[in-house]
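Hi C.,

You asked whether I'd gotten around to modeling the 528-residue construct. I have! Everything is below, sequence then structure, no commentary in between.
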Amino acid sequence: MPFQKTLLNRFRGAGGTDGSSAGAGTFRADFTASLVVFLVAVPLCVGVAVASGVPAELGLITGIVGGLITGLLPGSSLQVSGPAAGLTVLVYEAVQEYGLAALGVLVLVSGLLQLAMGALRLGRWFRAISVAVVQGMLAGIGLVLIAGQLYALADAKAPSSGLGKLGGLPGLVVDVAGSSAALKAVAIGAGTIAVLVFWPRWKRGARVLPAPLAAVALATVATVGMDLPVARVEVKGLLDAVQPPGGGEFAQLAEIGVLGTVLAFTLIASAESLFSAAAVDRLHDGPRTDYDKELMAQGAGNAVCGALGALPMTAVIVRSAANVQAGARTKASRVLHGVWLLVFAVLFPSALGVIPVAALAGVLVHAGWKLIPVKDLGPLWRTHRGEAVVLVVTATAIVVTNMFEGVIIGLLMAVAKSAWETSHVHVEVAGLKGTPEDHPVRVQVLGNATFLRLPKLLDELEALPRKREVRLDLSGLRHVDHACEMALATWAERHNAVVSRGTESGPSNSGASDSADAEDAADERALA
């Protein structure tokens, strides 16, 4: 079925692991894979940090923690964690509303909640989340991310809300057209996107250098070589960027808005990580992910990131897929990638200062586009229209409101859709035609009877002849809720009572009988 090409198998590809014991060959494969993942991670860590409105070094810190802390813990052996584009919009909104100093508290508490959920064995329950809601969440994130980064492409400040970003695009186009500096920045960003799209088609080059690093490197060379007047990444230094939360920041947890943001961090990061784990499991033949342990590993990493005032982390499918496809066999590859990030951040921090912001914006525009399931939407509409509606509504709600409210709306809609679709019920009537008037009509109700289908059921029952006894059979129901059971039992009792009284009154009292029947029928409808 076309819909099966969803989030969980979109990233299927070559590579794998055989779960063999460690040895020279295994370490060599892990070492090589760690370098590939490191080269993919550097531009993404920096880009996510800049797009989130925080110092670039904080993205590297989260990547380092994802390798050295989460990478060492059990859960998923080949999944790679770090800052992800999926949380960029939420982090940016949180930093703008509560300040950079509060970020550490938000991430720390989210990590502790993830640890608690893993300890309570709730990790597996995240697999019950509707795929349409997750795809809608990612699509909404992608739309807002693209809209925001289009401003960064032109070295312009983006509006704060999703609708504001989209509504301001026409004005942005006019401003760019009238500014030579903005046009140069856009050219750098557009060139970066072009390299990201076409570089993988050059197989030899793609094997030597990952597309994100190649795109950012070429954009940086062009910017420096031509001395273009475009914004560059601001560098503070690794230690200066670390801001552990203080008592004042913890006091903000008493605010309802802060608690809502913590829950959003927790739920979205957990869902994204565990869906990524399911996708990574399909890429190799090695040990499967233990979802509860993986959730605890993510929680430990986020707790450390929060203590350092860094960005929240999730498992990242792009880095994870690169890890598997590069031939990684054990968790050593992801731990080593964290080591290389640490070495880079300590020894070469000034290298970040020459990277143009427009190039990183191009990387994130490309990443945002990949979050939107464009190819899946058509087949999904043809085969599962309800799921397609949930996806679109979730994405739209995120753009119109915010991340947390949009996901809640999507989840509620998915639950309502499932409840409606599972409430299939129909009525089979036997003995209505070709039988004497004094023989009862047999009515069997089949399917799932819930309050959602009660009006339809009662309409069908009330269409039966009012002077024939009804034998109501509910044994064919797979499920019946209390409201439906009581309503059906009351209807059958009242209907048969009316029939019985009509029979006892006899034909001589037909006028009184008709009047009583009409009165009882009115009572019956009122009770139903």
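If it helps when you're writing up: The longest helix spans residues 24-51.

Thanks,
B.
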